[in-house]
Automatic annotation (TrEMBL):
Phylogenetic lineage: Bacteria, Pseudomonadati, Bacteroidota, Flavobacteriia, Flavobacteriales
Subcellular location: Cell outer membrane
Family under the similarity heading: Belongs to the TonB-dependent receptor family.
Keyword Transferase in record: no
Keyword Signal appears in the UniProt entry: yes
Protein's UniProt name: TonB-linked outer membrane protein, SusC/RagA family
Location of the TonB-dependent receptor-like beta-barrel domain: 419-968
Superkingdom as given in the UniProt entry: Bacteria
NCBIfam families (UniProt xref): OMP_RagA_SusC (TIGR04056), SusC_RagA_signa (TIGR04057)
């Protein structure tokens, strides 16, 4: 039972009380030091600061002990400061021992010594509700820092992780700027609840629901909502931490089943205030063109002469363009003895490679932290970001069918047609469901404006030494308006025009209280955590539509004044959804003598999404670790510097299901009506639409993880190895109901399971490190073996393909003993002497029918990998990254639409279909002819930079100029635009996997950029 209603008003008073307390603090403790007075300084001291290997250290703080004067080193480790001969310099930098140097001349050279244990395994890593040294971790946790994702043009957080963390797969649903991205960690774990991890930004868990308005279908499909993470300016991000196993993610309970991604934004750092200006200019083009028949090849194919229209057009060249993008970002950061500050402002303007598509984003951020009272007893932190996004889209909805997709119109367009007729107007194809793609773009206008604010206030009060209370109040507010107009046109898609305005208002509020207690007893170290969390989500959507308005260019556009002309065909309508999550959580971290580690956690989550009989779910975890390298027999090893073994077990949950599905639903309908009076008028009766099921509970993911972290040969080689076994239980499905139920389908938990298991590795090496040259190389890879077990139904279908005559045909199947979303289709064997397609007759009855379909391997790659390298030679820096995958397949639904039968209907076709000798009379069938391997290796990013040190200008620290490229080279046998793609073609809410349907192509991009530090 929920108690939050009675407590909530009291909780609201806590932040007000804290603000009142802080506002009445008259002044902070004096921060300045009194230094003895010396004679006037008359020397300029210059010097360099490097590490033990001779590599320059940027940002090291140099202080004259006697006067307090200070400065910081530039990108080359150089500094200048005013001091007297005989005075003393103090040099400090995080992770290194503070060093003092007596000034004996005007030139000083210093090498800092790394602190004991300050290696990669000793770095501080975020975990849920806190942080730990990497050496103390017992779960599978991976962290990226800002320097790991500088190269390239990245709109969203998820793009930054691509190829850099083992077991994390990033797949774009579309190459359109700002489009959604599918993120999966350790395979696909659910049939219908999605596989997207929980994203937590500066301590605020986000809702994975769309936050941009989605327009209803006006004949061109529901264009997918944009990426809900594209509101963050990626240059504001300090680190990304991925919690992969249940031990690490269980503290987030009900939403941790797909893993957790912690995003931390930048803070002010110690040293001089830093002002930074980042800018780049990008030039993008389509990653590749499909090999269609040219006009000459079309004419020479012996096709009906009526289909030769006398033109010569490459329609891909007509709709794709060389797009220009720009980005400008300024930031200011500063740290004091009591706090730190970071502020930024950025603007991105990205044109899409398809005409009329674009993405513009303006963001502002303020992060501030300050300490109060004696010895920093109270710390208050504020994180605030606001973004304004303006997008223009194209008619390319995934569920529009072939005649609602501008890209398929361009690919199918006869190359002997011309774009314009003799009068300069767009050529009218005069065909049903097939239009001039440039004309379709000209009469379609789709604009979305999304404004989002995410902020939170954290207050930490030290009650006793080691005992801290933390309060966290977070708010995520989004308002989105989408205006979609199809002007009156000559097509058979809304020929009289249609305008729809859709609005979405999303609200997410978080309230958390928790205590942490750290204490030591001789060699025993403890960290205790206990807390309460309450989060409320509310989404409201409204929409309306008008039609029969003036043609384009005449009268007033309905976008400006929809009520001025036209008639309503969608009256004002809307929906509101609310759900709440109330949680209690606790965790114990224990280590003995820095050798033996234990972590145990438990979270109880109560959700309004679930039935009255299972309102709460309980998610435990336990993990152990053994740092073997701290044992006496390895302590002095010259080979093994660090070695730790880890093992964990835990459970997490998945609550991503529709609201209110546990409750019955009713409606009034004539089909259930009856005659109440003698006048024989039929009275609507009550129809049961959904059967109540109060026993519905969470999907539960149970995971076992075994891992090892190591560092060898004085940290020249480092990395980690993992084995995982991850099983999804109690799958939530909408399946046939038992006999005598009032409805044919019912939402309930199934005995079905999805098992993902495999190995992961991350290996790195500091291959070379000396005064002039540094080279780091990191490689990661992951395997996954996915199988469905114990389904209570024989099979579940999803992945509806599109194409003429293919209505209702699905490509995916979920069946016991097979990979989730395996492919189900006819087995193509070739063509006979007459050019007819031959399919395997599985049942041997001499005819090809439904029983002849076979199950083929699915879309999930068996192996994914990434290779990342960074080199620095004096003032040059060079970085590159490769990504790749093997063992997966894609249904090339685009090729299915470009089948050989197009030549019989005045349309174009893929050249290899014609070259195969197939007959024009072959009708399209979903078969393994369109099933292709998605194996690839890609040069994902490459970057070359040069840093200029500006010693002549005191206000200018450095300028880094760079050139970079994205998606520069892809080696693959896949014939579509991009093997790393997944179009959402779900059926009945069940996930579709591995379908490529006329997806907006990816782009290859070249960038010129600069980073200027003041």
């Amino acid at each position: 039972m929920y108690h939050k209603i009675n407590l909530f008003k009291f909780k609201k008073l806590i932040p007000i009380a804290l603000i009142f307390l802080v506002a009445n603090q008259a002044h902070a403790e004096g921060l300045t030091k009194n230094y003895p007075v010396f004679s006037q300084v008359n020397e300029t001291i210059s010097g360099t600061v490097a590490d033990q290997e001779g590599s320059a250290i940027e940002g090291a703080k140099i202080t004259v002990v006697e006067t307090g004067a200070s400065t910081t080193t530039d990108a080359s480790g150089n500094f200048t400061i005013s001091a007297n001969i005989g005075q003393t310099l103090s040099i400090s930098y995080d992770g290194y021992v503070i060093q003092t140097v007596k000034i004996s001349s005007t030139s000083v050279s210093v090498k800092l010594q790394s602190k004991k244990g300050a290696t990669s395994i000793e770095e501080v890593t975020l975990v849920g509700y806190g942080s730990q040294k990497k050496s103390d971790l017992t779960g599978a946790v991976s962290q990226l820092k800002a320097e790991n994702f500088k190269e390239g043009m990245n709109i969203s957080v998820d793009n930054l992780m691509q190829g850099k963390i083992a077991g994390v797969r990033i797949v774009q649903s579309s190459g359109e700027p700002g489009a959604g991205v599918n993120v999966s960690i350790r395979g696909i774990g659910s049939i219908r609840s999605g596989s997207t991890p929980l994203f937590v930004v500066d301590g605020v868990p986000l809702n994975n629901d769309p936050v941009s308005a989605q327009s209803p279908n006006i004949g061109l499909g529901n264009v997918q909502a944009k990426n809900p993470l594209n509101f963050l300016n990626t240059s504001d991000i300090e680190s990304i931490t991925v919690l992969k196993d249940a031990s690490a993610a269980a503290i987030y309970g009900a939403r941790g089943s797909n893993g957790v991604v912690l995003v931390t934004t930048k803070r002010g750092k110690k040293g001089e205030p830093m002002f930074t200006y980042d800018t780049y200019l990008g030039f993008s083009s389509v990653i590749k063109k499909l090999d269609l028949m040219t006009a000459d090849e079309y004419r020479g194919a012996g096709i009906d002469k009526l289909y030769d229209h006398g033109g010569n057009t490459d329609w891909q060249d007509e709709i794709y363009r060389n797009a220009v993008s720009s980005n400008h970002a300024v930031s200011f950061s500063k740290a004091t003895e009591t706090g730190n500050y970071f502020a930024s402002l950025s603007h991105m303007d990205q044109d899409g490679i398809v005409l009329n598509s674009s993405f513009k984003r303006t963001t502002a951020r303020l992060n501030a932290e300050e300490s109060f009272f004696d010895n920093k007893r109270l710390k208050v932190k504020v994180n605030l970001t606001a973004s304004d996004i303006k997008e223009t889209g194209i008619p390319n909805g995934g569920n529009a069918g072939s005649d609602g997709q501008v890209i398929i119109h361009a690919l199918m367009a006869n190359p002997t047609r011309s774009v314009y007729d003799e009068n300069g107007n767009f050529t009218n194809f005069n065909m049903n469901a097939h239009y001039n793609p440039l004309y379709l773009l000209s009469v379609y206008n789709d604009k979305t404006n999304t404004f989002r604010v995410l902020g939170n206030t954290e207050a930490t009060l030290r009650i006793l030494p080691g005992l801290n209370y933390k309060f966290n109040l977070g708010i995520d507010k989004t308002m989105s308006e989408r205006n979609t107009t199809m002007y009156p046109n000559i097509t058979d898609r809304t020929p009289k025009g249609a305008y729809i305005q859709a609005n979405l208002d999303s609200y997410n509020v978080l309230l958390e209280h928790y205590l942490t207690y750290d204490f030591n007893l001789n060699k025993h170290s403890f960290n205790l955590l206990g807390g309460f969390s309450y989060q409320k989500f509310k989404n409201s959507a409204t929409f309306f539509g008008v039609r029969n308005f003036a043609v384009q260019g005449a009268g007033i556009s309905p976008e400006i004044n929809p009520g001025y002309s036209g008639e309503a065909f969608i009256p004002g309508a809307g929906t509101v959804q609310e759900n709440e999550l109330q949680s209690y959580f606790g965790r114990v971290n224990y280590n003995f003598d820095k050798k033996y580690f234990l972590t145990a956690s438990l979270r109880a989550d109560g959700s309004t999404r679930f039935g009255d009989n299972n309102k709460y779910g309980y998610f435990p975890s336990v993990a152990v670790g053994w740092t073997i390298s701290n044992e006496n027999f390895l302590k002095d090893s010259q080979v093994i510097n660090e070695l730790k073994l880890r093992g964990s077990w835990g459970q997490t949950g998945n609550q991503e299901v529709p609201n209110k599905i546990t409750k019955a639903s009713y409606s009034l309908a004539q089909s259930a009506g009856y005659y109440l009076y003698d006048n024989l008028n039929l009275i609507n009766g009550v129809l049961i639409n959904r059967t109540a099921f109060p026993d519905l509970k969470w999907e539960t993911v149970e995971q076992i993880n075994m891992g090892a972290d190591f560092s060898l040969w004085k940290n020249k080689v480092y990395g980690s190895l993992e084995y995982y076994n991850k099983t999804t239980k109690d799958a939530i499905l909408n399946i046939p109901s038992p006999v005598l139920s009032p409805t044919t389908m019912i939402w309930r938990n199934s005995d079905g399971q999805i098992v993902n298991k495999g190995f992961e590795f991350s290996l790195g090496s500091e291959i070379i490190r000396n005064e002039n040259f540094t080279w780091n190389l990191d490689v990661n890879g992951a395997t996954v073996n996915n199988v469905v077990k114990n389904l209570s139904v024989s099979e579940i279908y999803s992945g509806e393909v599109s194409g003429p005559g293919l209505s209702g045909v699905t490509a995916n199947i979920y069946k016991n003993g097979y990979e989730a979303g395996s492919f189900y289709m006819y087995h193509y064997l070739g063509v006979d002497a007459n050019g007819k397609y031959i399919y395997e007759d599985v049942d041997g009855d001499g005819a090809i029918g439904q029983k002849d379909k076979k199950i083929f391997e699915g879309a999930i790659p068996n192996f994914t990998f990434g290779i990342n390298s960074y080199m620095k030679y004096k003032k040059f820096d060079f970085a590159f990254s490769f990504i790749g995958q093997t063992g997966g397949y894609l249904v090339n639904n685009t090729a299915l639409d470009l089948n050989i039968n197009n030549l019989a209907s005045d349309r174009n076709v893929l050249k290899n279909f014609y070259d195969s000798g197939a007959s024009f009379t072959n009708q399209p069938q979903l078969s393994s002819l369109y099933l292709e391997k998605s194996d690839f290796i890609r040069l994902n990013n490459v970057r070359l930079g040069y840093t200029f040190d500006i010693n002549q200008l005191k206000f200018l620290k450095s300028i880094n100029l760079y050139v970079s490229a994205q998606n520069l080279l892809t080696i693959t046998s896949y014939t579509g635009y991009d093997p790393l793609v997944d179009t959402s073609k779900q059926v009945g809410g069940n996930q579709s996997l591995g379908i490529d349907y006329t997806t907006y192509p990816s782009a290859k991009t070249f960038i010129l950029g600069a980073t200027v530090k003041f």
